[in-house]
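Limitations
The structure tokens in this dataset are predictions for the assembled complex, not deposited experimental models. Users should treat interface geometry with appropriate caution, especially where small molecules or nucleic acid strands are included. An illustrative entry is reproduced here so readers can see what is and is not provided.
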Amino acid sequence: MAATHELMGEGGAVSMEAIAKRAGVSKETLYRWWPSKTSVVLDALAERGQSTIPLPDTGTLRGDLAAFLRSTADSADPATRHLLRAIAAAAANDLDAAAEIRTRFISARRAALNRVLARAATRGEVIASNADTLLDLIYGSLWYRLIFDVGPLDHTWADDIAAAIAPAP
Amino acid sequence: MAATHELMGEGGAVSMEAIAKRAGVSKETLYRWWPSKTSVVLDALAERGQSTIPLPDTGTLRGDLAAFLRSTADSADPATRHLLRAIAAAAANDLDAAAEIRTRFISARRAALNRVLARAATRGEVIASNADTLLDLIYGSLWYRLIFDVGPLDHTWADDIAAAIAPAP
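Predicted assembly:
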């Protein structure tokens, strides 16, 4: 994972060969744990999200969403955005790839944001059964901007989405 | 356009050669009007959206959104979904392709839904300056489901999104 993070951060080609070399293990060892380059990169991205995007607890859904989405935008440096776009292209081209991406990466990000929504539900700010729809809307807007370049992923985006999902009471 | 629609509906390969043949014109004539196959397909998809997705006027944002998104889901038959996924992959792979897709297709769909939101703004149901964020959220959720297959694009999706964006007063 650490070797993959390093290579991802350097923005160059991430291959099984390069990861094995950087980690000081054989390619055979790497393949014993991950079936493909895509699977290593997805796990590394999920781990990176987990460690760089803290779960905020500001006391309101609006505040939590703004903080969470600001961290999300901040953690998406140019190399990461490039990888995320490649992942979207792979998913759009192939339903099997989409399934692996959901299992290894999308589900981890949904689970993290879902904890923010669950806390909001206990405060009565959202209805718990709406959480899946809200996750679709929020992560949908992120990928839509990333893929079609309809607007920047920045703090203004984070605050606008937070305000639209959690209007002031 | 009609020839392109026919070929798209048949689900087979859509090439400039095939479009020209079906339309009974030379490839040179076709290239005089469209620079690439992608540009013809995008224009045909935009025209198809315009003609198969009516602008509803139910009197409420919730009703209008549910009707508009139900029509959107209905108009996306399997051949169209396949084309839309190919378009998403092209956009994710190449920022120039993303720009052409925004200009020829995405902007037309945003303009249509924006008219629904503008009517809701005159009724005081949304703030006009939030429209762009709402367009991102709504179309984001559509593409997110289409690309990553996180859930079906059907009437339940349409109704859930309408309810989340326009809660009952």
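Some entries come with short summary sentences. For this one: The interface with chain B takes residues 85-86, 88-89, 91-93, 95, 98-99, 101-102, 106, 130, 132-134, 136-151, 160-161, 163-165 of chain A (CB under 8 Å).
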